[in-house]
Input
Amino acid sequence: MATLLEVSGVSVTFDGYRAIRNLSFQIGEAEMRAIIGPNGAGKTTFMDIVTGKTKPDEGRVIWGEKSVNLLKMNEAKIAQAGIGRKFQRPTVFEDQTVFANLLMAVKNPRGSFACLFYKPTFKDRGRVEQLASEIGLSDELDRKSGELSHGQKQWLEIGMLLAQEPRLLLVDEPAAGMTLAEREHTTDLLKEAAKTRAVVVVEHDMEFVRRLECKVTVLHEGSVLAEGSLDHVTANPQVIEVYLGR
Amino acid sequence: MHIRLIPALLLSLVLGLPVLAQDADAPIQQLLQEQSELIVQSSRRTIEPAIAAIRDSDLPEAQRVLEQWVARDMWVRKSDGIFVYATKAGSGSLTISDFATGEPVGEAPSADFDQIKPNSGIQALISSALVKFQLNSEDRATRIGALDALSRNGNASHLPVLRESIDTEKDVAIKLRKQRIERLLTIAYGETPADRIEAMEAVRGDLGVDVRAALNPILATTRRAAATLPADMNIARELKPGRDLTEAEAYDLLVSASLAPARLTDDVQRQTLQDNIADGMVGGVPVADLNTMAERNRAYENLVTAGLAQPAATSEEVAEALDTHAFFETYAEPDAEVTEAAADTLASIELKLATNQFLDLSLDALSLASIYFLAAIGLAITFGVMGVINMAHGEFIMMGAYTGYVVQQVVPNYTLSIILAIPLAFAVTFAAGVAMERLVIRWLYSRPLETLLATFGISIALQQLAKNIFGTQARPLTSPAWLDGQWQINDIVGISNIRIAIFVLALIFLGFFIFLMKKTRLGLETRAVTQNPKMAASMGINPDRVNMLTFGLGSGIAGIAGVAIGLYAKVTSELGADYIVQSFMTVVVGGVGNIWGTLLGATMIGFLQKGIEWFNPSNTLAAQTYMIIFIIIFIQFRPRGIIALRGRAAGD
Amino acid sequence: MSRPFILRNPSILIFLACLAAFTLAVTLMSEAFGADMISTSFVKTLGKTLCLCLVALAMDLVWGYCGILSLGHFAFFGLGGYMIGMWLMYARTEIIVASSMANAAIPPTDQEVVNAIGTQIFGVVGSSEFPPIWYFASSLPAQLLLVVLVPGLLALVFGWLAFRSRVTGVYLSILTQAMTLALSLYLFQNESGLRGNNGLSGLQNLPGVSASQAVVSIWFLWASALALGVGYVLCAWVVSGKFGSVIRGIRDDEARVRFLGYSVEGYKLFIFTFTAIIAAIAGALYYPQAGIINPGEVAPIASIYLAVWVAIGGRGRLYGAVIGAAVVSLVSTWFTGGQVPSINLGFYRIDWVDWWLVLLGLSFVLVTLFAPKGIGGLFDLVSGRFAPDRHGADYGPDKGSLMEEEGR
Output
């Protein structure tokens, strides 16, 4: 399996506090991975580094077949290269309709002039409607997204993520604040997505992680503590001590 | 008139004993009689021996004679040529005094006397002769006055008397001053070049303005032109047309030295053409066509050919004239050694001067920085720590300044009024800040841009209110006398006391701020509320109260800053608005949320502004413009300021 | 969805109709068309108000839609005025100089004419030479081009510097304010070459036009109305569709837009420059009606007033900006013109010329506190358009978390 993203030897320091220390991580195409770890383990910072929000002090982040250095790119370029990110709290544009939200995310030229003269094509329209039905929001297309429930917003965001057609999805706690039924739907969406692309899910909820049925990476104090199946890592005494044992 | 004259004459005759008896045998009168002819003749060309004789006579009365003479109060009796001094007692009558005794001896009709009227040239000679007496006067103030006069316009004639007076001088300070002036006068008027060069050596590295004033005229140059470089002149340097001076300037030199004919100016050409209009034609060219230079030149040439106009130098002739002549700068001072020594001495001074000017500029910059710091420190609390953008901050500064003004109206003692004004200004602006926080800002904590606009609304309302109450003209806030002076280190470096006071106040505020934030309960609570209001609230801190107090404190400090700034600038309703943008710049450039950043920001902006002003001292507006542009560019490289918080604490 | 976008936005049609009706009414009632119910000076005031509405539109686009509270757009407005003012002043002085020199015995050369114009224009700042920036002043097309180019380039360079370094929020506001301050301080200097604090004057006289001011004022009213109409349609077009979605997205959550792959800086720069150009055009139409421009017009306070108009009118909707600018500037003219009767309190007489700014400042605070949607918010009551209205307290610690009413 070809490696899609390779993070090696990355460290980051905030005002003397080392949030990430010598972290190495890789993921292949069409792979699902869950990252777990206690608070302050560096999960969010790891995502910040991959998406270009935070620049590490040292280390390399290599992307794709052409081995592009992601550290030289800004957030927008990284997103265009095919890395999509879902934030911990749902961030959709609440003042705009579900349709507008999805249309904005659909893969198209992102330049300001291209966007100014853009007219939604039949194909793009179809894509939006298809996505809406996938995330179960077909009936809500003309509603303002701010009127949606919390779970619907999470899905809308996942839908927007899929609309970008990224090769790597970074999903931060997708199940937070969801009802049981909503969680199952979310699991299905992610598993479906992982068939064609790489998905990295950061999650606290062990039940949710178990349902994802994927390889698990445990972070602790900014570096990888253990990696393997969920059963494997939960059996690891170190993991039990730092995380589950508490 | 005659009627009154006669009795007086009669009286003197009858009594035999002259009422106006003069001691004709007194040494001073004898001396005057010896010089009588010259004195009465009163001519600028011949008078000098007479003045010198009186000055050098060693007679105690000599000073009196010279003083009365220069005041045009010396008269000579027609009958016997005796000199007296007199003041007009009434019409046609004089009160006569005797030079020998200095006592009035009676009245006499002015018709019997001729007034000696020295012209201004002679008066100057007498005055400089008088300097000798003033320099040796018993009265200290007179000696100092004479030295002041000498340092302003001394000349060669003063040198000998000045030198003589040095040895007998007892007062050390005056003696030093005499020696200094002697050096300076020697530089300008010394008898031999060697003397002058020696005097220059003595003032090497001296920063006094007077030293440079003595040296600079020696090095003054004039531009000249000649066929060849003259050997008999003290030439500063040779000039090349096109390099050291423009060709037009060079040619003008030739023209003024009558070495070349004047060039034709456009105005002269037009006038000549106008004078030669005949039948709508000038030199065969129709007048209507004369709206281009080519046609005008053609018409003029035709006039020259016809003998109707002066030939003008062509450009080839100009070029040739420039080629064949030498251009140079000469010193007015003929002796090359002297000019060389003067240049050398001046160079030795320049370096030291530059160092001292830099020092002076740094002091200026420091005081400007402390003013910015004062204006910004309140903001460092409200904007930097709390994150509330208060556009009315400038108006709080203004309120503080006006509070100071009002207090001065009530309490006339300036020292007392300032001492009262500071706590009062704090109280007033603290109250205003608390009121504003309670009524407006509290509701807008999560909407910073709207806070900006709402506080701006308050700002314009307050400004207009101040205008309505105090009028548009500037109100004075007078500093007490002990703040008026200046701390002068040498002729170059000096700083006014009020700036020192502002600097000290800035330091006090800095200390206070650090103490408040790091050591007090309020500081701890403020930091807690700023970082996480909900968590702080759950720890038993009342965020509303803390926010209110902190905001009030920031505003109160602005009020005190207002008193200080009011002392330094005029109090107007726009006082605050003048500082608000710079204050925000100071906080932003320094790094939000860090008092050391604010300090560094103020220092940087202060030094920068003074530095730019140094390049272009006449234009403070330009300095501010360039400074703002610099700040905009600076923020490119350090968007979060000089001292930036990193990581999660910085937020996004 | 293939309908033209104007039809999709009925508010545009309503606005254009209102604007046309207004222009027609003023024209018919004006002195120039005989009715003489509106004085020429009031026609000018109305024309100027239309220009202010146009610059408010630009402000709404940049602030209300893109979330950049620029305190510098009046600087672009003023620059536009300066650019057109240079030509107006040059051309008019040229006519005066030519007529005074026509009687000379010898016809003047071109250089002599230029020198005489220079003396006329710059005598007041003790100079007679044309600074290099007046190089194009003799050409109307060139100066018209500069109306767009100079403010556009300034906005482009400033915006590029500011957005590139990710200066946002109040920091950006302060930075734009600093830019405005720097510009006005620069213009205040005699060395700026734009006559220092004297500014440019006599701009109301169109060179080579013999029509009376009454007629010229109507022309300018038409031009201003046309510019406002075109500007409105253009702005409405920009904010509709995907581009509008993106810039509103930038306003609401800049980082999210960035992670969608949009270059936020590019979009901001586009909007900043685009609105700067609109502001400049508005200025170029405004100052010939005002007759004089000086650096005081560019002072930071003017740009803040612009924000005040938009806020009072209601930001985030184009007609709100227009209404705000029109209402506040006309009311302000009314109050400061001394036509409002003073209120006698017995012990104090409230003279509105003095107290208007206090009233404006306080009403501004009240609008910000109690009616953040501004006057435009009233239209929501009519159309029943409400923003998502969420009730209840947060369930969790995060801002976007579930709220009580939603936890069905």
